[in-house]
Design a protein that fits this description.
Elements: E1 2-8, E2 11-18, E3 23-27, H1 38-41, E4 49-53, H2 69-83, E5 88-93, H3 96-106, E6 111-117, H4 130-143, H5 146-149, H6 165-173, H7 178-189, H8 198-201, E7 208-211, H9 220-229, E8 233-236, H10 242-251
Parallel strand pairs: 3-4, 3-5, 5-6, 6-7, 7-8
Antiparallel strand pairs: 1-2, 2-4
Length: 258
């Protein structure tokens, strides 16, 4: 993978890329880094230019300031500018879907296609489910101790992951910046949403691929909301091979030039 450093609002941000051709940008979820997004696009590096950034406040993109979806979406625009790319496929995994969706709403002319893998956010009118709110509050309670107690306080959050995924996650955590972790966990726990209502979802312009969620953090109700309201939405089941589904979506005639 080739490393990329770029700047947005005076903050140095990090990404990796591979391959050549039409760009696919994939965004990771909370308390992760680009490595969490790569499995969704790495197999496509033979025919696409795949790009996975560390979002502001994650990984090497250190930032302890207040986060917002507008700010994170602006970072994606800065990334495309640095790449010299006018338009790209832009997607996210888990809470990374919120940034991708916000960017598609703000800058539809720069998005060839929107990719939402197990989305989290139901919009301002609905907000989090009770279980989501409790989960993210618990995450924040642990992460908020990172500055005073060290990054090791995060280790229990990954305890239920299967091996070897847990081993990789714990190795990833060791490189995290405590202040960035706090900023990210507070942002997610705040309940901030990337859109207002189902009416705003109906304004999404790019063709959209939805890989459905079906667990308490990625509720099926959120996927139902997206499928019912995003105009050009293609759904695939949670059991689908994500990289294969993304490749088929991006390969569709007209998507790369829509």
């Amino acid at each position: 993978m080739r490393e990329i450093w770029f700047e947005s609002e005076g903050t140095p941000l990090f990404a990796v890329e591979d391959g050549e051709g039409t760009v696919i940008v994939m965004l990771h979820g909370a308390l992760a880094n680009h490595q969490a997004a790569l499995p969704s696009i790495a197999p496509l590096g033979s025919r696409y230019r795949i790009v996975a950034p560390d979002l502001r406040g994650s990984g090497k993109s250190r930032c302890g300031d207040t986060l917002s979806f507008d700010r994170l979406a602006s970072d994606i625009e800065a990334l495309l500018d640095t790449l010299g790319v006018d338009r790209a496929f832009v997607g996210g995994v888990s809470s990374g879907t919120g940034v991708a969706l916000r960017f598609a709403l703000q800058s539809p002319d720069r998005v060839l296609g929107l990719i939402l893998v197990t989305p989290v956010f139901a919009g301002e009118e609905l907000g989090y489910t009770e279980q989501q709110a409790a989960t993210f509050a618990g995450m924040d309670a642990v992460a908020s101790r990172a500055v005073d107690e060290g990054i090791g306080v995060l280790r229990p959050l990954y305890a239920n992951l299967p091996e070897p995924m847990q081993e990789k996650a714990l190795a990833m955590v060791e490189g995290f910046d405590p202040a960035s972790v706090v900023a990210t966990s507070r942002f997610v726990a705040s309940g901030s949403q990337p859109f207002a209502s189902d009416a705003e979802l109906r304004s999404v312009q790019p063709p959209t691929l939805l890989v459905r969620g079906e667990d308490p953090v990625h509720p099926s109700e959120v996927s139902d909301l997206y499928a019912a309201n995003i105009p050009k939405c293609t759904e695939v089941a949670p059991s689908a091979d994500v990289a294969t589904a993304i490749g088929a979506f991006c390969d569709e005639p007209g998507h790369a030039s829509t």
